[in-house]
From TrEMBL:
Top-rank EC class of the record's enzyme: ligase
Species, as recorded: Velocimicrobium porci
Protein name: Phenylalanine--tRNA ligase alpha subunit
CDD domains, per database record: PheRS_alpha_core (cd00496)
Transmembrane segments: none
GO cellular component, one term: cytoplasm
Length: 339
């Protein structure tokens, strides 16, 4: 039995000394000291040893186990230290190298255009007012002189929640809320997201943004409207920008007009950007319809005003010469980093 124990111990010590990795030490531990290991099998065969020799054999087994465990632990620590040293060499940090810059966010082209528009109008004394995107049909249509049978209320144009509630199709509804407050005069712009049932293509989206403006005061004329929008165009597109008004129809304004600006690429001479006309359509405007004033509790004989509305995406597309509106919503960093 002593010779068997010595053979097991010598063989295990040799295997431990020859091992080159921690995984091999684990294999040796299991094969010698495990439940089915060689030393354990010796203990299980103690019944074959004479009773008077059992204490001595048991002591020899325990000493062998202790010696092997100490040797295994010593070898494991040596391996761990070596691995740690190699890891430190590989992961050495040179503190003199410049640090990696964190990725910084960037303003969206729509945000840049909106901030510029807001800066222009607040500089003229306007207030920026926001309102709900989910709106009553009354504020979105009827209070703006758009009756129940108007084509704009068709389900092909509008997202209805129910018969009385819609996703707003224009931010003009915010103007109605402000007029109903009765705090006159009013000088405001209402930026925000609007919804229309449009197919997605290069120039249309079911969700887009508008900036609508409203002025209500005494003795306001169309000349005030023209002067305000001419100044807005010059600050947005350049001092040499000219404006042109074409008669149009909007239910909530009378008279109404579409405003064009001279092409800021060719100076009005005609180019691919303005399709050879020298002019670019930019917004709709007009004098507030008297019936709209009446429905909001304002006396049209005492107060008059003008309103206008511009598509924020249209401004961004024109200002930054973007050909496809869908690029604004795809969140491609390669595109957004250009602004």
């Amino acid at each position: 039995m002593q010779e068997k124990l010595k053979a097991i111990l010598d063989q295990a010590v040799a295997q431990i000394n020859e091992s080159q990795e921690i995984e091999r030490l684990n294999e040796i531990r299991v094969s010698v000291l495990g439940k089915k290991g060689e030393l354990t099998s010796v203990l299980k065969s103690m019944k074959e040893v004479a009773p008077e020799d059992r204490p001595k054999v048991g002591q020899m087994v325990n000493e062998a186990r202790t010696q092997l465990e100490e040797l295994l632990e010593e070898k494991r620590v040596a391996f761990a230290k070596k691995l740690r040293e190699e890891q430190i060499k590989k992961e050495t940090i040179d503190v003199t190298l410049p640090a990696k810059k964190p990725a910084m966010g960037h303003r969206h082209p729509n945000t840049i255009a909106l901030e510029e528009i807001e800066t222009i109008f607040t500089g003229m004394g306007y207030e920026v007012v926001e309102g709900p995107e989910v709106e009553y049909d009354y504020y979105n249509f009827e209070a703006l002189n758009i009756p129940a049978n108007h084509p704009a209320k068709d389900e092909q144009d509008t997202f209805y929640i129910n018969s009385n509630i819609v996703l707003r199709t224009q931010t003009s509804s915010v103007q109605v809320h402000e007029m109903e407050k009765g705090k006159l005069p009013i000088r405001m712009i209402a930026p925000g997201r609007v919804f229309r049932s449009d197919e997605v293509d290069a120039t249309h989206s079911p969700s887009f943004h508008q900036v609508e403006g409203l002025v209500i005061d005494k003795n306001i004329t169309f000349a005030d409207l023209k002067g305000t929008l001419a100044e807005f165009a010059k600050q947005l597109f350049g001092e040499d920008t000219k404006v042109k008004f074409r008669p149009h129809h909007f239910p909530f304004t009378e008279p109404s007009a579409e405003m064009d600006v001279s092409c800021f690429k060719c100076g009005g001479k005609g180019c691919r950007f303005c399709k050879g006309s020298g002019w670019i359509e930019i917004l709709g405007c007009g004098m507030v319809h008297p019936h709209v004033l009446e429905m909001s509790g304002i006396d049209p004989n005492e107060y008059v005003g003008f309103a206008f509305g511009v598509g924020l995406e249209r401004v961004a597309l024109l200002k930054y010469e973007i050909d496809d509106m869908r690029l604004l919503y795809e969140n491609d960093e390669r595109f957004l980093r250009q602004f």
